[in-house]
Amino acid sequence: MSKNPWIDVSVPVHNSMHFWHGDPPPYVTMHAGTAKGDVCNVSVIYCSFHTGTHMDSPLHFLPGQKTMDDLPFDAVIGPARVVEIKDKESIKPAELKKLKLKKGERILFKTPNSTVSWKKPTFDKDFVYISKEGAQFLVDAGIQTVGIDYLSVGGFYKDGVETHHILLGAEVWIIEGLDLSKVKPGNYDLICLPVKFAKGDGAPARCLIRKR
Question: Where do the structural domains in the chain lie, given as residue ranges?
């Protein structure tokens, strides 16, 4: 049994958190509370399935394809590798070629987003994303799961749809909205469990990693 502690790489959900531009803002409120005389505390949350740390299913972009119900747990439980990307625009094949990717790997990308995007007061449209060419490289390498440290694997201005289509079309499972600011590159154990929404196109998730 590893003595290394689990690290929570999820972002907390609250009323002022970052959310995808154009989606409804997350809203958390108290429905019942002991402070006002109720017998228990009951909170209510309103948000999209793609709020904070979350996963995408193929249905997110591809009608009639697999949903969160079809998630194989092997995709989100097991060894994973955190790799650091230096490119300040996007994740491209030139940098991916240096990683010696292996079939079946779970890859979590730590980019400049971890120290820049999450610290901005509002949604960062210039976050680092996976280029469509990078997405195809990952598919060709046989990667089964990718994670990224902001709210989308595809860019806001470019490759947003294309990158999702390439990855989800190959049934590469996607984790978005990770906070890897305090994580060093290396090999980890991963547990990332999305909320079980029936036929979901995505779902908020709690993600933990532990140094191997």
Answer: 6-211
| Virtual torsion, Cα 137, 140, 142, 148, nearest 10 deg | 20
Residues with catalytic roles: 60
Beta-carbon contacts of residue 64 (< 8 Å; ≥ 6 apart): none
User: By three-state DSSP, how is residue 205 classified?
Assistant: strand
Within 10 Å of residue 32's Cβ, how many Cβ atoms?
13
Contacts of residue 181, defined as CB under 8 A and 6 or more positions apart, other chains included, come to 114, 115, 118, 149
Sequential pLDDT tens for the chain (212 residues): 568 999 999 999 998 898 999 999 999 999 999 999 999 999 999 999 999 999 999 999 999 999 999 999 999 999 999 999 999 999 999 999 999 999 999 999 999 999 999 999 999 999 999 999 999 999 999 999 999 999 999 999 999 999 999 999 999 999 999 999 999 999 999 999 999 999 999 999 999 999 99
Helices (H), the chain: 93-96, 132-141, 160-169
Model-wide pTM > 0.90: yes
- What is the fold, at CATH topology level, of the domain defined by 6-211? Glucose Oxidase; domain 1 (3.50.30)
The sign of the torsion formed by the CA atoms of 16, 19, 22, 24 equals: negative
Q: Percentage helix, strand, coil, to 5, in the chain?
A: 20, 30, 50
